[in-house]
TrEMBL record:
<dbReference type="InterPro" id="IPR004429">
    <property type="entry name" value="Isopropylmalate_DH"/>
</dbReference>
<keyword id="KW-0560">Oxidoreductase</keyword>
<dbReference type="GO" id="GO:0009098">
    <property type="term" value="P:L-leucine biosynthetic process"/>
</dbReference>
<keyword id="KW-0520">NAD</keyword>
<feature type="domain" description="Isopropylmalate dehydrogenase-like">
    <location>
        <begin position="3"/>
        <end position="314"/>
    </location>
</feature>
<dbReference type="InterPro" id="IPR024084">
    <property type="entry name" value="IsoPropMal-DH-like_dom"/>
</dbReference>
<keyword id="KW-0479">Metal-binding</keyword>
<dbReference type="GO" id="GO:0003862">
    <property type="term" value="F:3-isopropylmalate dehydrogenase activity"/>
</dbReference>
<protein>
    <recommendedName>
        <fullName>3-isopropylmalate dehydrogenase</fullName>
        <ecNumber>1.1.1.85</ecNumber>
    </recommendedName>
</protein>
<keyword id="KW-0432">Leucine biosynthesis</keyword>
<keyword id="KW-0100">Branched-chain amino acid biosynthesis</keyword>
<dbReference type="Pfam" id="PF00180">
    <property type="entry name" value="Iso_dh"/>
</dbReference>
<dbReference type="GO" id="GO:0046872">
    <property type="term" value="F:metal ion binding"/>
</dbReference>
<dbReference type="InterPro" id="IPR019818">
    <property type="entry name" value="IsoCit/isopropylmalate_DH_CS"/>
</dbReference>
<keyword id="KW-0460">Magnesium</keyword>
<keyword id="KW-0028">Amino-acid biosynthesis</keyword>
<comment type="subunit">
    <text>Homodimer.</text>
</comment>
Protein backbone atom coordinates (compact mmCIF):
# COMPACT_ATOMS: atom_id res chain seq x y z
CA UNK A 1 0.00 0.00 0.00
CA UNK A 2 1.23 3.47 -0.90
CA UNK A 3 1.67 5.68 2.17
CA UNK A 4 1.72 9.46 1.87
CA UNK A 5 2.58 11.83 4.72
CA UNK A 6 0.62 15.08 4.58
CA UNK A 7 2.11 18.12 6.36
CA UNK A 8 0.06 21.29 5.99
CA UNK A 9 2.42 23.35 8.13
CA UNK A 10 1.64 27.01 8.79
CA UNK A 11 -0.27 29.88 7.25
CA UNK A 12 -1.73 29.25 3.82
CA UNK A 13 -0.22 25.78 3.86
CA UNK A 14 -3.22 24.81 5.98
CA UNK A 15 -5.50 26.02 3.17
CA UNK A 16 -3.78 24.89 -0.04
CA UNK A 17 -2.58 21.45 1.04
CA UNK A 18 -6.06 20.14 1.95
CA UNK A 19 -7.23 21.24 -1.51
CA UNK A 20 -4.31 19.48 -3.20
CA UNK A 21 -4.74 16.34 -1.12
CA UNK A 22 -8.48 16.25 -1.83
CA UNK A 23 -7.66 15.97 -5.53
CA UNK A 24 -4.93 13.36 -5.04
CA UNK A 25 -7.02 11.34 -2.58
CA UNK A 26 -10.03 11.43 -4.87
CA UNK A 27 -7.95 10.10 -7.76
CA UNK A 28 -6.30 7.49 -5.56
CA UNK A 29 -8.54 6.51 -2.64
CA UNK A 30 -6.34 3.45 -2.14
CA UNK A 31 -3.52 5.66 -0.84
CA UNK A 32 -2.97 5.48 2.90
CA UNK A 33 -2.39 9.04 4.12
CA UNK A 34 -1.36 10.24 7.56
CA UNK A 35 -0.84 13.73 8.94
CA UNK A 36 2.22 15.00 10.76
CA UNK A 37 2.00 18.33 12.56
CA UNK A 38 5.17 20.38 12.27
CA UNK A 39 5.95 24.08 12.17
CA UNK A 40 5.68 27.36 13.97
CA UNK A 41 2.12 26.85 15.20
CA UNK A 42 3.16 23.67 16.93
CA UNK A 43 6.29 25.36 18.31
CA UNK A 44 4.17 28.09 19.87
CA UNK A 45 2.04 25.47 21.60
CA UNK A 46 4.69 23.01 22.70
CA UNK A 47 8.10 24.59 22.21
CA UNK A 48 8.95 21.93 19.60
CA UNK A 49 8.50 22.40 15.84
CA UNK A 50 9.64 18.96 14.64
CA UNK A 51 10.74 15.94 16.67
CA UNK A 52 12.81 12.84 16.02
CA UNK A 53 9.57 10.85 16.06
CA UNK A 54 8.23 13.07 13.27
CA UNK A 55 11.30 12.34 11.16
CA UNK A 56 10.88 8.62 11.82
CA UNK A 57 7.26 8.84 10.67
CA UNK A 58 8.28 10.66 7.49
CA UNK A 59 10.79 7.93 6.70
CA UNK A 60 7.93 5.43 6.69
CA UNK A 61 6.13 7.30 3.89
CA UNK A 62 6.51 6.58 0.19
CA UNK A 63 6.18 10.30 -0.47
CA UNK A 64 5.55 13.50 1.49
CA UNK A 65 3.22 16.39 0.60
CA UNK A 66 4.36 19.52 2.43
CA UNK A 67 2.70 22.91 2.76
CA UNK A 68 4.56 25.93 4.08
CA UNK A 69 6.40 26.86 7.24
CA UNK A 70 6.69 30.16 9.08
CA UNK A 71 10.22 30.70 10.36
CA UNK A 72 10.21 33.45 13.01
CA UNK A 73 13.26 35.63 13.78
CA UNK A 74 13.98 33.67 16.94
CA UNK A 75 17.46 32.19 17.51
CA UNK A 76 15.88 29.22 19.33
CA UNK A 77 13.80 28.25 16.30
CA UNK A 78 15.41 26.05 13.67
CA UNK A 79 13.96 25.88 10.17
CA UNK A 80 11.74 22.82 9.90
CA UNK A 81 11.99 22.35 6.16
CA UNK A 82 15.79 22.70 6.17
CA UNK A 83 15.96 20.13 8.94
CA UNK A 84 13.75 17.69 7.04
CA UNK A 85 15.74 18.14 3.84
CA UNK A 86 19.00 17.48 5.64
CA UNK A 87 17.83 14.54 7.76
CA UNK A 88 16.19 12.79 4.81
CA UNK A 89 19.10 13.78 2.56
CA UNK A 90 16.82 15.35 -0.03
CA UNK A 91 19.70 16.77 -1.99
CA UNK A 92 17.99 17.60 -5.29
CA UNK A 93 15.40 20.37 -5.39
CA UNK A 94 13.53 20.28 -8.71
CA UNK A 95 11.60 23.41 -9.66
CA UNK A 96 9.78 23.28 -13.02
CA UNK A 97 8.75 26.49 -14.75
CA UNK A 98 6.56 25.81 -17.77
CA UNK A 99 4.71 28.20 -20.05
CA UNK A 100 4.01 29.08 -23.67
CA UNK A 101 7.10 28.09 -25.63
CA UNK A 102 9.32 27.15 -22.70
CA UNK A 103 9.79 24.22 -20.34
CA UNK A 104 12.52 24.87 -17.78
CA UNK A 105 13.68 22.70 -14.91
CA UNK A 106 15.77 24.46 -12.28
CA UNK A 107 17.82 21.91 -10.34
CA UNK A 108 18.92 23.36 -7.03
CA UNK A 109 21.50 21.76 -4.75
CA UNK A 110 19.46 21.28 -1.62
CA UNK A 111 21.69 20.11 1.23
CA UNK A 112 24.52 22.58 1.69
CA UNK A 113 25.57 26.02 0.43
CA UNK A 114 24.43 28.96 2.55
CA UNK A 115 21.62 26.77 3.91
CA UNK A 116 24.04 24.32 5.47
CA UNK A 117 22.92 25.42 8.94
CA UNK A 118 26.42 26.31 10.14
CA UNK A 119 25.72 29.69 11.67
CA UNK A 120 26.54 31.69 14.76
CA UNK A 121 26.23 35.22 16.09
CA UNK A 122 28.97 37.25 17.68
CA UNK A 123 28.96 40.61 19.40
CA UNK A 124 29.23 42.71 16.27
CA UNK A 125 28.41 40.29 13.45
CA UNK A 126 26.51 37.21 12.38
CA UNK A 127 28.25 34.46 10.42
CA UNK A 128 27.00 31.79 8.01
CA UNK A 129 29.32 29.24 6.45
CA UNK A 130 28.76 28.47 2.77
CA UNK A 131 29.54 24.80 2.24
CA UNK A 132 30.16 23.51 -1.29
CA UNK A 133 31.56 19.99 -1.28
CA UNK A 134 32.92 17.78 -4.04
CA UNK A 135 30.36 15.03 -3.37
CA UNK A 136 27.46 17.47 -3.03
CA UNK A 137 28.38 19.18 -6.30
CA UNK A 138 28.94 15.90 -8.13
CA UNK A 139 25.64 14.30 -7.19
CA UNK A 140 23.54 17.38 -8.03
CA UNK A 141 25.41 17.70 -11.33
CA UNK A 142 24.61 14.08 -12.15
CA UNK A 143 20.95 14.55 -11.22
CA UNK A 144 20.73 17.55 -13.55
CA UNK A 145 22.55 15.70 -16.32
CA UNK A 146 20.08 12.80 -16.12
CA UNK A 147 17.21 15.25 -16.54
CA UNK A 148 18.93 16.97 -19.47
CA UNK A 149 19.44 13.58 -21.11
CA UNK A 150 15.81 12.58 -20.55
CA UNK A 151 14.58 15.87 -21.98
CA UNK A 152 17.15 15.98 -24.78
CA UNK A 153 18.09 19.52 -23.86
CA UNK A 154 21.00 21.80 -23.04
CA UNK A 155 22.40 22.11 -19.50
CA UNK A 156 23.11 25.53 -18.02
CA UNK A 157 25.38 25.78 -14.96
CA UNK A 158 24.53 28.85 -12.87
CA UNK A 159 27.42 30.13 -10.80
CA UNK A 160 29.33 33.14 -9.51
CA UNK A 161 32.81 31.73 -10.02
CA UNK A 162 34.17 35.13 -10.99
CA UNK A 163 33.77 36.23 -7.36
CA UNK A 164 33.20 33.24 -5.08
CA UNK A 165 35.92 30.58 -4.87
CA UNK A 166 33.51 27.85 -3.75
CA UNK A 167 31.61 28.43 -6.99
CA UNK A 168 34.77 27.67 -8.93
CA UNK A 169 34.66 24.20 -7.41
CA UNK A 170 30.96 23.81 -8.15
CA UNK A 171 31.27 25.05 -11.74
CA UNK A 172 34.31 22.92 -12.54
CA UNK A 173 32.73 19.73 -11.19
CA UNK A 174 29.48 20.34 -13.10
CA UNK A 175 31.39 21.09 -16.31
CA UNK A 176 33.50 17.95 -15.88
CA UNK A 177 30.49 15.72 -15.25
CA UNK A 178 28.58 17.16 -18.21
CA UNK A 179 31.57 16.71 -20.52
CA UNK A 180 32.02 13.13 -19.33
CA UNK A 181 28.35 12.41 -20.03
CA UNK A 182 28.46 14.04 -23.45
CA UNK A 183 25.76 16.57 -22.58
CA UNK A 184 25.76 19.99 -24.19
CA UNK A 185 26.42 22.58 -21.48
CA UNK A 186 27.32 26.18 -20.76
CA UNK A 187 28.42 27.87 -17.53
CA UNK A 188 26.76 31.25 -16.89
CA UNK A 189 27.14 33.83 -14.15
CA UNK A 190 24.00 33.77 -12.07
CA UNK A 191 23.22 37.50 -12.23
CA UNK A 192 23.26 37.71 -16.03
CA UNK A 193 21.49 34.34 -16.17
CA UNK A 194 18.60 35.67 -14.08
CA UNK A 195 18.06 38.53 -16.51
CA UNK A 196 18.41 36.43 -19.65
CA UNK A 197 16.06 33.78 -18.27
CA UNK A 198 13.31 36.39 -18.14
CA UNK A 199 14.17 37.82 -21.55
CA UNK A 200 14.66 34.51 -23.40
CA UNK A 201 13.07 31.65 -21.41
CA UNK A 202 12.81 29.41 -24.47
CA UNK A 203 16.62 29.30 -24.62
CA UNK A 204 16.81 27.20 -21.45
CA UNK A 205 16.11 23.57 -20.62
CA UNK A 206 17.77 22.37 -17.42
CA UNK A 207 19.58 24.78 -15.11
CA UNK A 208 21.71 23.50 -12.23
CA UNK A 209 23.02 25.76 -9.50
CA UNK A 210 23.83 26.03 -5.80
CA UNK A 211 21.34 26.23 -2.97
CA UNK A 212 20.64 29.93 -2.50
CA UNK A 213 21.09 30.79 -6.17
CA UNK A 214 18.58 28.11 -7.09
CA UNK A 215 16.15 29.42 -4.50
CA UNK A 216 16.36 32.96 -5.84
CA UNK A 217 16.46 32.05 -9.54
CA UNK A 218 13.35 29.87 -9.33
CA UNK A 219 11.46 32.64 -7.54
CA UNK A 220 12.55 35.12 -10.21
CA UNK A 221 11.29 32.68 -12.86
CA UNK A 222 7.86 32.83 -11.23
CA UNK A 223 7.41 36.10 -13.12
CA UNK A 224 7.12 34.08 -16.33
CA UNK A 225 4.06 32.11 -15.18
CA UNK A 226 2.07 34.43 -12.93
CA UNK A 227 3.89 34.41 -9.60
CA UNK A 228 4.96 32.12 -6.80
CA UNK A 229 1.44 30.77 -6.37
CA UNK A 230 1.95 28.83 -9.61
CA UNK A 231 5.27 27.11 -8.88
CA UNK A 232 5.63 23.56 -7.49
CA UNK A 233 8.78 21.78 -6.42
CA UNK A 234 10.14 18.37 -5.53
CA UNK A 235 12.84 17.54 -2.98
CA UNK A 236 14.38 14.24 -4.04
CA UNK A 237 16.94 11.98 -2.39
CA UNK A 238 18.06 8.43 -2.98
CA UNK A 239 15.43 7.04 -0.57
CA UNK A 240 12.86 9.74 0.18
CA UNK A 241 10.90 12.43 -1.65
CA UNK A 242 9.02 15.53 -0.50
CA UNK A 243 6.83 17.78 -2.65
CA UNK A 244 5.97 21.37 -1.78
CA UNK A 245 4.83 24.63 -3.34
CA UNK A 246 7.64 27.15 -3.78
CA UNK A 247 5.77 29.90 -1.95
CA UNK A 248 5.96 30.50 1.80
CA UNK A 249 3.31 30.59 4.50
CA UNK A 250 2.08 34.10 3.52
CA UNK A 251 0.77 35.10 6.97
CA UNK A 252 -0.61 38.35 5.53
CA UNK A 253 -3.35 36.47 3.66
CA UNK A 254 -3.61 33.32 5.78
CA UNK A 255 -7.14 32.47 6.87
CA UNK A 256 -8.83 34.55 4.16
CA UNK A 257 -9.44 31.66 1.76
CA UNK A 258 -7.87 33.50 -1.17
CA UNK A 259 -4.50 31.72 -1.45
CA UNK A 260 -3.70 30.29 -4.87
CA UNK A 261 -3.63 26.47 -4.60
CA UNK A 262 -2.11 25.86 -8.05
CA UNK A 263 1.45 25.42 -6.75
CA UNK A 264 0.24 22.93 -4.14
CA UNK A 265 -1.89 21.04 -6.68
CA UNK A 266 1.02 20.91 -9.10
CA UNK A 267 3.26 19.67 -6.30
CA UNK A 268 0.72 16.92 -5.75
CA UNK A 269 0.90 16.11 -9.46
CA UNK A 270 4.69 15.81 -9.19
CA UNK A 271 4.16 13.46 -6.24
CA UNK A 272 1.87 11.30 -8.36
CA UNK A 273 4.39 11.17 -11.20
CA UNK A 274 7.11 10.16 -8.72
CA UNK A 275 4.86 7.32 -7.52
CA UNK A 276 4.39 6.10 -11.08
CA UNK A 277 1.11 7.81 -11.99
CA UNK A 278 2.33 10.11 -14.76
CA UNK A 279 -0.98 9.99 -16.61
CA UNK A 280 -2.77 11.45 -13.59
CA UNK A 281 -0.16 14.19 -13.32
CA UNK A 282 -0.77 15.10 -16.96
CA UNK A 283 -4.54 15.12 -16.39
CA UNK A 284 -4.19 17.42 -13.39
CA UNK A 285 -2.09 19.92 -15.33
CA UNK A 286 -4.58 19.90 -18.20
CA UNK A 287 -7.43 20.50 -15.73
CA UNK A 288 -5.59 23.44 -14.14
CA UNK A 289 -5.02 25.03 -17.55
CA UNK A 290 -8.67 24.56 -18.55
CA UNK A 291 -9.99 26.04 -15.31
CA UNK A 292 -7.75 29.10 -15.62
CA UNK A 293 -8.72 29.62 -19.27
CA UNK A 294 -12.35 29.66 -18.17
CA UNK A 295 -11.53 32.67 -16.00
CA UNK A 296 -11.63 30.83 -12.68
CA UNK A 297 -8.69 32.42 -10.89
CA UNK A 298 -7.71 33.44 -7.38
CA UNK A 299 -7.15 37.16 -6.65
CA UNK A 300 -3.38 37.02 -7.25
CA UNK A 301 -4.18 36.18 -10.88
CA UNK A 302 -6.87 38.84 -11.16
CA UNK A 303 -9.85 36.61 -10.39
CA UNK A 304 -12.45 36.18 -7.67
CA UNK A 305 -12.19 32.46 -6.93
CA UNK A 306 -11.45 31.20 -3.45
CA UNK A 307 -8.86 28.57 -2.65
CA UNK A 308 -11.61 26.03 -2.15
CA UNK A 309 -13.68 26.94 -5.22
CA UNK A 310 -10.65 26.71 -7.49
CA UNK A 311 -9.94 23.24 -6.16
CA UNK A 312 -13.55 22.20 -6.71
CA UNK A 313 -13.37 23.47 -10.29
CA UNK A 314 -10.29 21.34 -10.93
CA UNK A 315 -12.01 18.30 -9.43
CA UNK A 316 -15.05 18.88 -11.62
CA UNK A 317 -12.84 19.11 -14.70
CA UNK A 318 -11.22 15.82 -13.70
CA UNK A 319 -14.64 14.25 -13.19
CA UNK A 320 -14.01 13.32 -9.55
Amino acid sequence: MTRVAVLSGDGIGQEVIPVAWDIIGSLHPEFDSFEVEVGYARWKKSGVACTDDDITALKEADAILFGAITTPPDPCYRSVILGIRQRLDLYANLRPVKGNGFDIMIVRENSEGLYSGIEWQEKDRACTVRVVSVEGSRRIARAAIRLAEERGCHLTIGNKANVIKSDVLFRDICCHEAAEAGVSFEACYIDSLALDLLLHPASYGVIVTTNIFGDILSDVAGYLVGGLGMLPSANIGDRYALFEPVHGSAPDIAGQGIANPVAAIRSGAMLLEYLGHKDDAIRIEAAIQTVIKRGIKTPDLGGMATTQSFGEAVKAELGI
